[in-house]
Amino acid sequence: MTNKIKGGYKGRILRINLSTSEIENFPLDVDLAEKYIGGIGLNTYYLYHELNPHTEPLSPDNVLILGIGPLVGTGAPGSDRVELTGKSPLTNGFGSANAGVFLGIEFKQVGFDHIILKGKAPKPVYVWIHEQCVEIIEATHLWGKTTWETVSIIRHELRDEKVHVISIGPAGEKLVRFANVQNGFYSGFSRGGLGAIMGSKNLKAIAVRGTSKKVPIANVEKFTRATQEAFSRIKKDPFYSATVKYGSMAFAAGELVPNDKISAEYFYENLKEKTLGCYNCPMPCAHWVKIKKGPYKGTQLRGGEVAPLFAFSRACQIMDQEMVIKYSELCLKYGLDMISTAVTIGWAMDCYERGLIDKKDTGGFEIKKGDGEIVLDLINMIVSREGFGDILAEGSFRASELIGKETKEYLMGVKGMEIYSDPRLGLPGWAWCFSQAVSARGDPAKPHP
Q: Considering Cα of 186, then 188, then 194, then 199, what sign does the dihedral take?
């Protein structure tokens, strides 16, 4: 093992056993990190070597790994991402998701490249990491709180509004198979149900506060030149100006969605307040949005991205951006993956309209596409695992197995995980066909868990 830091790494790995409260801080093997480069690279290595392949995703033996790659905090374009990896409760296979904003910088500044969590706390806890000091703090008072409430309470308790918090909401606590891990208020590790892993471990949150220590760079002059060249090439891209204006909503072109109200232009003129981006990102894709009319007037949040719009409009036929923003707010607070939420509900609506599901299955609900209010009801039922929501909380693939009939014929997903757009559409700029066909997330040996 080589421990000489060559640049980009802080050189430490943190391991926490929640069952025993043991905390270990050990050196990063830099040669290994360079062989499996990036947060997801070494995350995958540790997952493979630390996890028995027969481990159930919601058992204490599953591991949850945060990885902060060597570019994070260096000034490279978009160098802020954190990768979260574990065995997916949704697919029963490889699960990984990433989030940005400023979280990666904070983790890098606190002095760790990777954090490995295992075991199950005897009661709810959160982990507090600061100045290479690690504490496991009781969090019974936080259980049942939304992610937004959790962030605010932890910051108040720690008397520091700059503490970065990743947390689960009621969905993760209830082991909803597509629960996410929320990053602050508005970002999240969304795909694969990693929030359910945290819930199964009684881990409500991780709070982190770093310092201003710089990330080491092996050759500052060469790195600066490469960074400047990367920024220059990005800004010359023909899609650059549209992305800066619309963010990811630039993909919501008129021919893709047949309703002017869910177009990028409608969003820009009626909902967008200002553009927001992650640390050092030259192509910001998020916005501060505010609903100015209708029943949800006054709702505002960091969002307005294309994924929930495509998911709810395509799967559920909700042609109303204001309503989709309201769904987004609920998913952020409850800790739900917006894509799996929308596509699972849309699948159920499809099956209902085809007579494969009836009111006996739904508990008396009529769930037809285009009904925006029933989507709100189903989101609340999923997060509480109430009635038909308890079946949908398993995700569309498992729900299909539970209901049976021909419902599996109308699933839309890859390897057990829902997707929000038909790859056969060939959306410009999005290599969906190829990326979904070769996706590592999921279990290729068992596509219908």
A: negative
d(CA 137, CA 127): 6
How far is it, in rounded angstroms, from Cα 187 to Cα 303? 9
* Cβ neighbours around 119 below 10 Å, total: 19
pLDDT tens, position by position, 146-185 = 999 999 999 999 999 999 999 999 999 999 999 999 999 9
Dihedrals phi, psi of 267, to nearest 5 degrees: -60, -50
Report the mean per-residue pLDDT for the chain. Answer: 89
For the stretch 237-290, pLDDT in tens is 887 888 888 877 776 654 445 567 778 888 889 999 988 888 888 888 788 999
Paired tokens of 200: 């199964």
Measured over the CA atoms of residue 377, residue 349, residue 443 and residue 34, the dihedral's sign is negative
Q: What's the CA dihedral at 7, 42, 103, 432 to 10 degrees?
A: 120
Nearest alpha carbon to residue 409 among 420, 419, 396, 421: 396
54 neighbors 254 (Cβ within 8 angstroms): no
- pLDDT of residue 429 exceeding 70, the answer is no
| Cα gap 293→282, rounded to integer Å | 32
* Closest among 302, 243, 242 to 272, alpha carbons compared: 302
What DSSP designation does 336 have?
A: B
Sequence-distant (6+) residues with CB within 8 A of 38 are: 67, 69, 70, 83
CA dist list (Å): 74 to 13, 77, 188: 19, 9, 22
Strand 203-209, strand 125-130: pairing: parallel
Positive or negative torsion for Cα 89, 90, 93, 98: negative
pLDDT at 248: 77
**Between residues 125 and 267, the one the model is more confident about:** 125
Burial (Cβ within 10 Å: 0-12, 13-18, ≥19) of residue 54: exposed
What pLDDT score was predicted for residue 422?
64
Nearest to 357 by CA among 420, 406, 292: 406
